[in-house]
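Lab notebook, design round three. We kept the backbone fixed and only want residue identities now. Task for the bench partner: fill in a sequence for the structure below.
Input structure tokens:
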């Protein structure tokens, strides 16, 4: 299957897909605006040398005519969470205009021009709730945009550690399929809940419990036709799983059938460099940052309030998976992992290799860039093992589609 990878980073989608036979990434784009050194792209192009086309340009400037005559089966990408609001153009003749620089519209452009059978996207789970003043608006615009391109859409928030991975990283994954595929057609008689629990894309890759939440009752509604109306009026409480078929949106809170995770102690290196160990001053700073706090503060308007936050484990428990890794990993920061080295019993931060392992990347995948950028890139990356499971599920669906097409041909010739 021919794949386009957008917002590729250091290649997490690609590693996961290529661990499954049947995928070929023919074109990948990674570009970091206003950066002289393109660290992530340099890593990507080095690791996938002579394997497909590597694009290091603003994706909005890419001429999609380069894909003419090439069958693109799948578009993947982990895109930024932005403001997706839209408005009618001033003339009224050019239809609808989204905010400039919003990268989701580039995904829409690529989908329009290449018409892939499948789309697989990743984002932070707050996408389902944004913006705070009109909850669910942005995700509604995304769903409606994919509906207008003739796709059925499924989504699921996945915590990687609940499915056997080493990190408690929650992300929303969005899978869209062309409505003409046998996978969509053959499942039309299944209920939306059945798709989320048993038959759908995510249900097979990431099994869930059969019971339906009593606290968060499932919701369904017909998505408005007009994107401007959606942008101006729609507010929706989306749960952690859902499906949209022919404009009908159904969302439900599902509970994972949890698997045993990899724990932090299992991914630690031995005999690490002295530079990763903490000084007494750094330990004292971390103790403060990770400890509970109640601080009296005054806002810019003169309002006085109490800032409070709970304490965190210090050091990290080695018998549990790691917390969500952020781009600030490795710095003296509340979110940085601090572990007691099993060998020396001294406190230290994670090494870049250990951060790669938290995301399921091969050891030293990001070697060659500065250490700060190695931490940064892993804080931005996705968990590769999840993509591998999704890749296997796409291959299953492609096989179902192939059987469905063959059955159609057999019926035609029989008649």
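Proposed sequence:
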């Amino acid at each position: 299957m021919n794949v386009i990878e957008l917002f590729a980073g250091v290649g997490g989608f690609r590693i996961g897909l290529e661990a499954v036979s049947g995928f070929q990434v023919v074109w990948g784009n990674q570009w970091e605006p206003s950066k002289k050194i393109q660290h992530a792209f340099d890593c990507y192009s080095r690791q996938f040398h002579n394997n497909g086309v590597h694009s290091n340009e603003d994706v909005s400037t890419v001429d999609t005519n380069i894909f003419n005559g090439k069958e693109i089966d799948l578009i993947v990408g982990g895109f930024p969470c932005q403001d997706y609001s839209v408005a009618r153009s001033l003339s009224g003749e050019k239809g609808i205009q989204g905010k400039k620089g919003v990268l989701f519209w580039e995904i829409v452009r690529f989908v329009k021009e290449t018409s892939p059978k499948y789309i697989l996207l990743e984002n932070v789970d707050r996408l389902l709730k944004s913006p705070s003043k009109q909850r669910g608006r942005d995700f509604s615009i995304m769903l409606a945009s994919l509906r207008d391109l003739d796709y059925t859409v499924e989504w699921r928030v996945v915590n990687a550690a609940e499915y056997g991975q080493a990190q408690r990283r929650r992300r929303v994954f969005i899978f869209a399929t062309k409505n003409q595929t046998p996978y969509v057609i053959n499942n039309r008689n299944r209920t939306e809940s059945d798709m989320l629990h048993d038959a759908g894309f995510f249900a097979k890759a990431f099994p869930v419990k059969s019971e339906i939440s009593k606290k968060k009752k499932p919701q369904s509604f017909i998505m408005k036709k007009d994107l401007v109306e959606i942008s101006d009026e729609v507010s929706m409480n989306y749960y952690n799983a859902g499906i949209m078929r022919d404009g009908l949106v159904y969302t439900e809170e599902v509970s994972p059938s949890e698997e045993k995770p990899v724990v932090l102690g299992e991914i630690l290196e031995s005999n690490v460099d002295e530079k990763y160990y903490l000084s007494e001053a750094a330990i004292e700073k971390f103790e403060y940052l990770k400890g509970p706090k109640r601080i009296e503060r005054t806002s810019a308007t003169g309002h006085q309030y109490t800032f409070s936050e709970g304490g965190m484990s210090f050091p990290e428990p080695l018998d549990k998976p790691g917390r969500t890794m952020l781009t600030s990993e490795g710095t003296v920061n509340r979110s940085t992992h601090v572990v007691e080295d099993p060998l020396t019993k001294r406190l230290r931060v994670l090494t870049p290799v250990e951060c790669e392992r938290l995301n399921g990347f091969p050891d030293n995948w990001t070697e060659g860039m500065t250490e700060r950028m190695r931490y940064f890139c892993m804080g931005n990356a996705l968990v590769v093992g999840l993509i591998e499971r999704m890749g296997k599920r796409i291959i299953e669906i492609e096989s179902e589609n192939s059987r469905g097409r063959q059955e159609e041909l057999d019926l035609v010739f029989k008649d």
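Keep this in mind before ordering anything: Residues 2-259+386-409 form a domain with the Rossmann fold fold (CATH 3.40.50.150).
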